[in-house]
Amino acid sequence: MKPKLSVYLSDNVAERLALAARRPGTNKSAIVDTALDRFLNPERDPNGDAALVRRLDRMSGQLDRVERDLSVTAETVALFVRYYLTITPPLPSGDQDAARALGRERFEMFVAQVGKQVGSGGRLVADVMQRISITNPDLFARNLEEGAPLGSRPAGHDPDGRALDATGKAPGHSPAGRGEIGNV
């Protein structure tokens, strides 16, 4: 025999309990018993936790992608600004008004292009990253043993990525290839 328990509920909870108990195959005692069991033993409800864990995993992946995209964007802007400031000579005083007008026009075109890209749902960063991973998958690889910068070739390779022979030189063409080079 189960022990009898009397409890006081708020009006809102009592109404919700009565509504839930109207469903076929359930009653107030079963609902309260299940709710108290889950509350007192949360590890016994793997279904509820599994859904929450899946949702958190999905959110974690989304945050990782946002962090990666933001990092790429920040580095891109920083490199662009450094490059621009390095190669742009100062303008003479007489040319500054025309340059400002041209700058405003170009900026308006830039804002329009950004609006068009965002409005179409396109993701330029994702497109660029995908293109890079297809054309140059080792661009972001780092030879950690040597402390090489990103995208550098491992030791034993020339700038074109070809392996070097034991003397440190790129191997030449095969004798058959030498004949073909002259015929091109």
Instruction: Give the C-alpha Rg.
Output: 33 Å
Number of helices: 6
Global mean pLDDT: 78
The termini sit apart by 98 Å
Which geometry do the CA atoms define? elongated
Beta strand %: under 5%
Helix content: 55-70%
Low-confidence stretches: 174-184
Class per helix and strand makeup:
mainly alpha
Main pleated-sheet profile:
none
**Strand segment count:** 0
Give the topology string: H per helix, E per strand: HHHHHH
What is this structure, in a nutshell?
The protein has about 180 residues and is mainly alpha-helical. It is built from six helices and no strands.
Helices and strands in order, then pairings?
Blueprint: H1 11-21, H2 28-40, H3 46-87, H4 96-119, H5 124-135, H6 175-182
Structure description:
The chain is an all-alpha fold. Among the domains are: 11-44, no CATH class; 46-86. It contains 6 helices and no strands. It has helices spanning 11-21, 28-40, 46-87, 96-119, 124-135, 175-182. The longest helix is centred in the middle third of the chain and has 42 residues, at 46-87. The protein is elongated. It starts with 10 loop residues before the first helix and ends with a helix. Mean pLDDT is 78; it is low at 174-184.
